[in-house]
Design goal:
The structure holds two protein chains of two kinds. By secondary structure, chain A is of the alpha/beta class. Chain A contains 14 helices and 17 strands. Chain A has three domains: 162 residues, Ubiquitin-like (UB roll) (Roll); 158 residues, 3-Layer(aba) Sandwich (Rossmann fold), CATH 3.40.50; 70 residues, no CATH class. In chain A, a hairpin with a 6-residue loop joins strand 15 and strand 16. In chain A, helix 1 crosses helix 4, helix 4 crosses helix 7 and helix 11 packs across helix 14. The longest helix of chain A has 20 residues. Chain B is α+β, with helices and mostly antiparallel strands. Chain B folds into two domains: 56 residues, 3-methyladenine DNA Glycosylase II, Chain A, domain 3, CATH 1.10.15; 169 residues, 2-Layer Sandwich (Alpha-Beta Plaits). Chain B has eleven helices and eight strands. In chain B, helix 2 runs antiparallel to helix 4. Chain B starts with a helix and ends with a helix. Classes of the chains: A alpha/beta, B alpha+beta.
């Protein structure tokens, strides 16, 4: 019996159409738009101006405040302007426009494919390199990694959890990265273990990726302290608290951080980026993006520069099919429908999903029949239908008491609702209101 | 017979005794309340809308009685008349407040502001606004899903199904501010109603650069500054590519309305302008030609 998390969860159709497609580099576009806010936290301050020459890896956005991540140029060329540009958030925000000329990289970046497994840096130096490279959580949440690897005072990490779950349907970028860059990821794990001073790491991989489980089981033998654990396929196993529960049996209390049970969770994509940053001096300027969809001609996994327009990626997969009803940035469960495909790839873009019109339409909301399915599937043990009603009637104190802020926005409730109620939409609204009230109370 | 008498006597005695206890207790634990609070509350409209900034009419009444002066206290629903009555009860003078009214600062109708995508999520502005900028090229304008309509307890604001913009019913609007709070885009503003309901305002909140704003919407303010130049009373400020008319300074001369190239400044309830006679117009045309 394979392990999994204990409460809730669903099993949507996997539809991993692009599984096994080798990661292909996509040619550098003529112009990139690099948003200055690609992470959770304060937006960056631009440090370049119109007319400046930049190379791949040149710092263009300096982080302000602790929870923030540096932004580097992903191409070489001339800065055209710093202006507002629409990004996947659906709003116009500050971004740096760069006209691409040649492909010159900063000198310190090691571009060879050679594996470097030895590292003589101290934990502090590793963290500094991670911060300087602007690495954020690549699973989609884009939380600055150096912040996550700095436990709050008095807390100590005991185990590093590696998220190789990729529980979102359709997405295969992490899977393919694990297959192609397994050794780099394992070196990345040793680096993070050193930075955190932990002796144990567990890689969690869902059992629909049997090849990755087998590969890592074989490879970890050379790395002491690292284990591999196959997991039962269950959404949302990639959620931090769910993954910790599945792998260690420890449960993170409501409102607490994973570090409270001694765990730190990192995504495999992030670990690969950490490897490149620490061993190869390469800042986060590229990422793997899955372009997929039932009607897409060639579902694929692409290695692309940050700032490349989504249209370029979609064209590489055979263009937008005529039947397109919706384009989603991310996976179908937690991804976000885009108002326009004219937005750039950012650090958190894990996939582009093209949904045909027939599947894209949301059904009209009907009355709640009190079946309790949403309560059954909620992985956080919440009561989604109650939280939706409390939000609708703006009963914020009760919403807070019913732990609305614990919601991880996985969408299992909306997915399962037979009355097609937009449970998550309301809960997300309520959560942001309640969080605002809590913040106001603290100040 | 005696059974009935005994019963009546016993119950009567218990009743009288209990009444006595209740009376004594109510005297002993009496809550001293200023009788004027009730009087003031009776003078208020009892709408409990929260427009005054207090949780309801009772709380507002208590605040009025407690305050040393009525400065800054205003019931937007009852208006000047109510506040004068309250002042009379309390033996104070009511502060003069101009009657205000809700104003929708977006004119992006379906013709003026083409839709670029389709939203079919939960039908609530605050949810849509958290997801993206809106179904048009303007990420500041009205989403048209009716959070304002839902918030109004006076049935004074409605979404026009043709334009998908809210419209204020002037005789019903009490300027309680519920719609202002409900709008996630900060489009609705409380402005002075003005003499004979005449008022002038910039009907746009788009802070994009002129060219971008104009591309998204034909009637967007492009921040050109013509209105600011022509205003004789310094009532217009331009910030972030957006003009704003200060209704304390505006004297309703309507010069700005004429010069606005995108017609984003609106005038309400003014008599029609004197038109230049057609003959003169023709003459002008021939001379310029």
């Amino acid at each position: 019996m394979l392990k999994s998390f204990r409460i809730g969860g669903i099993h949507p159709k996997e539809n991993k159409l692009s599984a096994g497609m080798a990661i292909q580099p996509i040619s550098v576009p003529a112009q990139v738009v690099i948003p200055l806010s690609q992470h959770i936290g304060a937006p960056c301050q631009p440090v370049v101006k119109k007319g400046d020459k930049v190379k791949v890896g040149t710092l263009i956005g300096k982080s302000v405040g602790f929870v923030s991540a540096q932004i580097h140029s992903s191409v070489s060329g001339t800065v055209l302007k710093i202006d507002k540009a629409m990004d996947a958030s659906g709003y116009k925000r500050d971004a740096v426009f760069i006209k691409v000329e040649e492909d010159e990289w900063e000198e310190q970046i090691d571009r060879s494919g050679q594996l470097i497994s030895d590292c003589s840096l101290t934990p502090k130096e590793i963290l500094e390199k991670i911060a300087a490279a602007g690495i954020v959580g690549m699973g989609g949440a884009t939380f600055p990694t150096h912040v996550k690897l700095t436990p709050p005072p008095g807390m100590k990490a005991e185990v590093l959890i590696i998220n190789g779950v990729e529980c979102e349907p359709y997405l295969t970028s992490d899977h393919q990265l694990m297959m192609e860059k397994s050794e780099e990821i394992l070196v990345g794990i040793t680096l993070v273990m050193k930075a955190l001073n932990v002796q144990r790491a567990i890689i969690g991989i869902e059992n629909n990726k049997k090849d990755a489980v087998a590969l890592f089981t074989k490879k970890v033998k050379a790395f002491p302290g690292i284990e591999v654990q196959a997991l039962k396929v269950q959404y949302p196993q990639g959620g931090e608290k769910q993954l910790i529960d599945a792998l260690t049996g420890r449960q993170v209390a409501s409102g607490a951080l994973p570090i409270s049970v001694g765990a730190v969770v990192q995504n495999v994509g992030t670990l690969f980026a950490i490897y490149e940053a620490v061993q190869k001096n390469k800042p986060l300027v590229e990422r793997v993006v899955t372009v997929t969809g039932k009607e897409v001609e060639r579902p694929c996994n692409l290695r692309t520069r940050i700032g490349t327009p989504l249209t370029t990626l979609i064209d590489a997969a055979g263009g937008l099919p005529e039947s397109t009803g919706k384009v989603i940035s991310g996976g179908p469960m937690m991804g976000k429908a885009l108002a326009s495909v004219d937005v750039p790839v950012t650090k958190g873009t894990s996939g582009i999903l093209v949904v045909p019109t027939l599947e894209a339409k949301r059904k009209a909301m009907k009355d709640c029949i009190r079946c309790g399915k949403c309560v059954q599937v909620c992985p956080m043990g919440l009561n989604p239908t109650l939280l939706m009603n409390l939000t609708e009637y703006e009963v914020w104190d009760r919403a807070e008491k019913n732990a609305i802020t614990d919601c991880i926005e996985c969408g299992s409730c909306s997915y399962t609702c037979p009355a097609d109620r937009p449970l998550l939409d309301y809960i997300r609204l309520g959560k942001s209101k309640v969080n605002g009230i809590i913040r106001a109370r603290k100040n | 017979m005696s059974v009935i008498l005994t019963a009546v006597a016993t119950l009567g005695a218990i009743g009288a005794g209990s009444a006595g206890i209740l009376y004594l207790v109510s005297q002993k634990f009496k809550v001293e309340e200023d009788p004027r609070i009730q009087e003031v509350q009776d003078a208020l409209p009892a709408a409990n809308c929260g427009g005054c900034g207090f949780p309801g009419c009772a709380a507002f009444a208590a605040a009025c009685v407690k305050a040393d002066s009525l400065e800054g206290l205003n019931c937007p629903v009852g208006g000047q008349v109510t506040m004068e009555r309250v002042a009379e009860i309390l033996g104070q003078t009511a502060s003069k407040t101009a009657k205000k009214i809700a104003v929708v600062r977006c004119s992006g109708t379906c013709e003026e502001r083409p839709r670029l995508n389709l939203y079919d999520g939960a039908s609530k502005c605050s949810i849509a606004a958290a997801l993206y900028g809106g179904d048009t090229g303007c990420s500041f304008g009205c989403l048209g899903l009716g959070d304002c309509e839902e918030s109004c307890t006076f049935d004074a604001i409605h979404i026009n199904p043709l334009t998908l913009l809210p419209e204020v019913v002037e005789d019903k609007c009490t300027a309680c501010g519920a719609c202002v709070r409900a709008c996630p885009k900060d489009i609705i503003e409380l402005r002075k109603q003005g003499p004979k309901s005449r008022r002038i305002y910039v009907s746009c909140v788009n802070k994009d650069k002129g060219a971008v704003a104009k591309k998204a919407c034909n009637v967007a303010c492009i921040g050109c500054g013509k209105c600011q130049q022509v205003c004789p009373f310094d009532a217009i400020t331009i910030e972030n590519n957006l003009a704003y008319i200060d209704d304390d300074k505006c004297r309703l001369c309507r010069k700005c309305v004429v010069v606005c190239p995108t017609h984003s400044i609106l005038e309400l309830h003014f008599p029609p302008r004197k038109e230049t006679p057609p003959a003169a117009k023709e003459e002008e045309a021939t001379t310029t030609a």
